[in-house]
What we know:
Layout: H1 5-26, H2 35-50, H3 55-59, H4 63-72, H5 74-82, H6 93-103, E1 124-126, E2 141-144, E3 156-159, E4 161-163, H7 173-186, E5 190-191, H8 199-202, E6 208-212, H9 228-235, E7 240-246, E8 257-259, H10 266-272, E9 280-282, H11 292-305, E10 311-315, H12 320-333, E11 339-343, H13 354-359, H14 364-377, E12 385-389, H15 395-404, E13 408-411, H16 413-419, H17 441-444, H18 449-473, E14 487-492, E15 495-498, H19 499-502, H20 522-527
Amino acid sequence: xxxxxxxxxxxxxxxxxxxxxxxxxxxxxxxxxxxxxxxxxxxxxxxxxxxxxxxxxxxxxxxxxxxxxxxxxxxxxxxxxxxxxxxxxxxxxxxxxxxxxxxxxxxxxxxxxxxxxxxxxxxxxxxxxxxxxxxxxxxxxxxxxxxxxxxxxxxxxxxxxxxxxxxxxxxxxxxxxxxxxxxxxxxxxxxxxxxxxxxxxxxxxxxxxxxxxxxxxxxxxxxxxxxxxxxxxxxxxxxxxxxxxxxxxxxxxxxxxxxxxxxxxxxxxxxxxxxxxxxxxxxxxxxxxxxxxxxxxxxxxxxxxxxxxxxxxxxxxxxxxxxxxxxxxxxxxxxxxxxxxxxxxxxxxxxxxxxxxxxxxxxxxxxxxxxxxxxxxxxxxxxxxxxxxxxxxxxxxxxxxxxxxxxxxxxxxxxxxxxxxxxxxxxxxxxxxxxxxxxxxxxxxxxxxxxxxxxxxxxxxxxxxxxxxxxxxxxxxxxxxxxxxxxxxxxxxxxxxxxxxxxxxxxxxxxxxxxxxxxxxxxxxxxxxxxxxxxxxxxxxxxxxxxxxxxxxxxxxxx
Length: 559
């Protein structure tokens, strides 16, 4: 029988060294100590040969482990040695660096010009003015919740850049403490995520947006249904500035979740109102409502129970007719949310199936346009503020998003970078190397709350300063003055277009005139007529002739 020495070479060498070192030891020579490492390798090799789960280890004993080792450090090798500064997967080194620099109050200036290819399709810029405006400061705010139908309204003056939804449980206690302390110092809002309000959210007193998901954490009965009594108890806190009903999130829309009982600690259980040590379920859909009208009634109910605090909902756009149905319900009932947060498909999460991360959920540009245009076309845009989230970290990201239709922006991973996140992408393993996304008590000790809270505040402050310089260069004094015509996009090596010409925008009330539908972007002609306020399901047939839609394209269909 021939021995395939190539495949077994490492094991044969280890065995030879082991025997040789034993012989040297018997003779009293110095090489005896080699018996320890070589013997260990022989044991590893024999274990590889005898196990049956991994064919690679059986065919290449010992050597297969080198493959596993290099595979395990591949992300680090790529990030530190091979990655280009502009490779954005998911965030480029330049994007991460600008957050680190602004958080640490280090110089964020770059020498020798841009590294971007200005002639590559997709490159964007903001047009400057020959007469720049005076810099009017950087504390940019917008009022949310001054609802005319709610006499006890408590409007909130929000920053245009805030911390997006991240729950205690997904993030460590120290991360939540640092984020909220930073929000308090910087005067901006901190979204709790659907994990509700923990004691770590309360400790520093920063402004909170209380996100309520399908699990109704913090406001649930023992059977998982919504509890008015528990909602009122939490919503009464002066720290809670707004109430946000989570319908879906961009990173994994249409999917619920489960936190295994082993991870439901006493602290997490206390925040969520669930038994410790038992599986914690977030259903894929809400039980408090099942129709568009029901959703709006629930929003109105929460606004009343919270004594008029701004109340709205967050969603990732999926079927267009479902959002149209919600807007038709607004027209039918007269109930409007104070705000809508649009979460783009490029958003992040601690853990999601790759199919959901890669192929479910409308990207932010198309989602934001759909929401903005629908509200404008229905004559409701002035009553409802729009927030937007999805890979927003720089002042230009904020400016571009506001120009396309948002009133304010949220960022999750941007503020994680400010905490020290290095994009190791180990959020789902509980082995976050910087203590940000872990419940490991030892790992999160590495995150120093006083230091990192200052970095959170500085990142926000310096991003707002950059935004003020950007809009002043464009001849403006407030981000709300940004419009689509301020943003320019290259569509080919020799052609550029203003966003106002490249992307369709509706005029107020256009959707209310059936005679105009055939002139609007195809998505409205197709799905507005079949949307119904009483159901998320469309009517069986669209009263729109197919030939009117022949110009629809992949990009047109969502605009």
